[in-house]
Amino acid sequence: MAKFLLRRLVYLVILVAVATSIAYLLAATQLNPRSRFEGRNPPLSEAAITSTLNDLNMNPDEPVLTRFGRWANGVVHGDLGKTILGQSVNQQISSRMWVSLRLVLLGSIIGAIVGCALGAYGAVRQYRLSDHVVTTASFIVLSIPTVVLCVLIALAGTKFNQAVGATAAGKQVFYTVGEYSPGQGGWNWSDLVDRAQHLFLPTLVLVIASAAFYSRYQRSAMLDVLGQDFLRTAQAKGLTRNKALIKHGLRTALIPLTTFFAYNLALLFIGSVFVESIFTWHGMGEYLVNSVSGQDINSTAGTTLFVAVLVLLAGFLSDVAYAALDPRVRV
Contact at 8 Å (CB) between 171 and 178? Predict the structure, then answer.
């Protein structure tokens, strides 16, 4: 088991190095950081622009492999370079990753639990009314673009505030903008309540979307398990049908979902762009979009490295989860 996990870890580390290198080379050859400094008023001299780009290691006149070697050397020493505005990429990622974590973690976990429960319940009650309701609701949610779902949830929150008269009183039950209100943002009780009021609506979007996604996969996985011989054997040994389904059937059906959850959680750090944009959360998704649109090579490469490491950890943790759920993997 230990050798298997070690081989997987080495394999994933190699993939991270390859993916990050390709991402940097693509960003360095396709983005044009010089355009950020041209056309300013008052205009900058060509020498000043070149000097700034040299300091940032973004001068397109230098060979791309030379710039990549300099950037890779910094990465090995824990330095991801500077943004096109001269800020530390390390500091930008370290601050924004926690914003994204607070946003996606709760919604992903609750959504996965709710989705798996609904999917398993629908499979056990296949073709009954409850199964049709869950299936229809899931397909409706999955057919709605994320940006539309965000807008609908935000409007619903605004309507709720108006219905209870919260807006007229100068306060709101649910906030649609920002991570916390101006003047707050600490971690005392009052600030935590304020954070929860800001967190509720974007979390609800992630819960609904995740639950719809997981319910479809869990239903299919559970249906594959229901006809297996080991369930009949468990019942023949004295277990009730419900206990056999929960102890053996659900556990087996959850095995393929561990991979989905691990990778989905990792990719949500930059995949929740619309949620962050609509609800004005300054997380990793927004940072990646701004980096590409702002012709920022170091930020784009640094964000790619961050996501690649998350995917590495997700893959490794999914292997561990497989081993915990399926004893055959351990041997």
Answer: no
- The residue type of 135 is T
> In this structure, are 270 and 325 located in the same domain?
no
Q: Are residues 276 and 221 in the same domain?
A: yes
- Per DSSP, the residues of 136-171 read HHHHHHHHS-HHHHHHHHHHHHHHHHHHTTTTTTT-
Q: Averaged in consecutive runs of 10 residues, what is the pLDDT profile of the chain (331 residues)?
A: 72 85 91 84 83 90 92 91 91 89 87 88 84 90 89 90 67 84 81 89 91 88 75 68 68 74 75 85 88 91 88 77 62 53
Q: How far, in whole angstroms, is CA 327 from its chain's centroid?
A: 29
Owning domain of residue 16: 1-84+294-331
Helices 189-226 and 129-143, packing angle to 10 deg: 120
Cβ-contact 276, 283 below 8 angstroms: yes
Residue 289 resides in a domain: no
Tell which residue, 279, 319, 49, has the closest CA to residue 157. Answer: 279
CATH of the domain at 142: 1.10.3720.10
d(CA 201, CA 213) in angstroms, rounded, equals 19
CB 272 within 8 A of CB 103: yes
| Cα distances (Å, whole numbers) of residue 237 to 124, 172, 232 | 21, 57, 9
Is 274 a member of any domain? yes
Quote the number of domains for the chain. Answer: 2
Model-level pTM greater than 0.70?
Answer: yes
Q: Which residue has the tokens 């003047």?
A: 183
140 lies in the same domain as 213: yes
